[in-house]
């Protein structure tokens, strides 16, 4: 049934606890001597578990202090939700500590159109969807069925609220920042922190102010603002930083336009992006049935919560005059290679690329708004009335069922279909490689998308597909020319009647006059479902994709003769050089085993280099029997140690575990029996993940000791007992004995807090939580 959302939603679980946040903010102001605060600081610090503890030490906060925070909501997509839920379940709680939602969007393949694609994907992913749905029912999680839409669009339409702090298990979670909040993309282990009510830790990011003046005009859209900024900041320019926009240029943007900008802040590595509360945000809340949130936000804004203080200091300020912006085309293969449209034709020629576009794609979580689609429809109408049809395959993935139904009701879909657009299911589809493309297999070709990412092979699995990012209007207009060098702002298209056709800049409409249509309400969850504890979570015995997580046994059980020291450990290997979470747990074809720890562990460290010999995926088994070879793959040797009940140690180089928050990179070594990892240095997030899984991360005091330890050596800890008893020093001594019986001692440093020591003792953070309930 298609009907209008004039009904107010029940907002009780959505409205942020503004009174409490403001009260905390007052305390924060006192602690910081009433210095003016940025908006990002206000939101973060008002979510601190204990402002006194975090802020009363003096010294620098941004870039230095670790904040313990209480996020208010969690959203998870179907791929990352699997392991997050399995972990949550092993904590033994009966409900989530904060409102949580699951969104089925990543596993839907785009082949030939919405309804058949959806049906096929539901069948092929049935066991995963059944698992997610049953777990959602058991724990009172809102479950958005396949077909409901893409996580970030749904969060913006339903859950985002100004001033809120929320987490999502997907890198484009910051999209929700379009409503003036902090939405942060995290790994499953962080989401589980929030779901279990464990404080979530974040190093206070630096805050970059982006000062917007002037106005967008003509063809320039908010997408062009972020494409321009990506070129300026590069893919690493936002790391450890929040991008906070301010200035007179913010207010004129639609809420959904700001969401596009926030979405793609992820492309420069920003922690998240945010904006002061605006009238357009208020209007968006009303039209999406959240008047109650808008009214509460209006009041909170009056009290100063939802914008920066006058005189707030940013770590850096970037000036952008919107009047100077022209449409941008970014790529190929990286989102920060930004070229203004007027120079793109020359770039195509200089680079020797074929002047041919092979497909246009619009929609996705990034650009599915009513405003985007009305602008696109206007372009299509102009072309159609001149007798043009698109020259290349043109696909559209609506961000949500609500958008799909509204497009249909308002004639946008038929306008697009009339010029040859194929509307796909409301899901990620081609944006995440779920595009079964029949043309251009293995050949160089160029596509234009309004999506957010354009790494090699991202869309169609063909590494020779050059993928360029642009606004939906530019992607659409260029589809009618079929040429890469076509500039819709200045160039004309020859019509069959000999006349020349030129586009005029489209205007679009921010919000639908008739409100949003809901579409098929069968896809939606019941709001705030109560947990049904009797529900059986569905995992079949012989599943290859899902497996219940067995709690990891503690190393400190009665079987350990060394008491509060770790048992004697064998060194699995010494890893040379760069070792990211991708080296530890590869993605690609392994993603289908995300919910099956035994299967995915078969990829452990498979692209890591062994410093003894310099080979990839080779490890040595010094205790092999006559039926086994001495050298084998890394996962195979790890498996042998596990089979012998032999806990092990790993020796690693600098910045071990950099890259992502992927919790599998900590779960997998733990699964095979890893007890300590000794590093020259750790990437912070991964180090925290190791601790959560009950692995002790240790830092070499003298980094040259790294080369003194080799595979097969026996390592014993000394001084851990003191740490376990709560009066430990920072130093843990290791005695290393080699195969000839020679031994030496080295010093390492731990970074365990007293709470983290409890996790180590219990075997994992989740074991500890479970022990507290019992
Ligand atoms: Fe999906 Fe692509 Fe967004 S994968 S969540 S549509 S970035």
Automatic annotation (TrEMBL):
Binds 1 [4Fe-4S] cluster per subunit. Its cofactor is [4Fe-4S] cluster. Gene3D superfamilies: Aconitase, Domain 2 (3.40.1060.10), Aconitase, domain 3 (3.30.499.10), Aconitase, domain 4 (3.20.19.10). One of its GO terms (cellular component) is mitochondrion. Residues 41-482 form the Aconitase/3-isopropylmalate dehydratase large subunit alpha/beta/alpha domain. GO terms for biological process: tricarboxylic acid cycle. Coiled coil: none annotated. GO terms for molecular function: 4 iron, 4 sulfur cluster binding; aconitate hydratase activity; metal ion binding. Residues 570-700 form the Aconitase A/isopropylmalate dehydratase small subunit swivel domain. This is Aconitate hydratase, mitochondrial. Its EC number is 4.2.1.-. Keywords: Iron, Iron-sulfur, Lyase, Metal-binding, Mitochondrion, Transit peptide. Its main location: mitochondrion. Belongs to the aconitase/IPM isomerase family. It is found in: Mitochondrion.
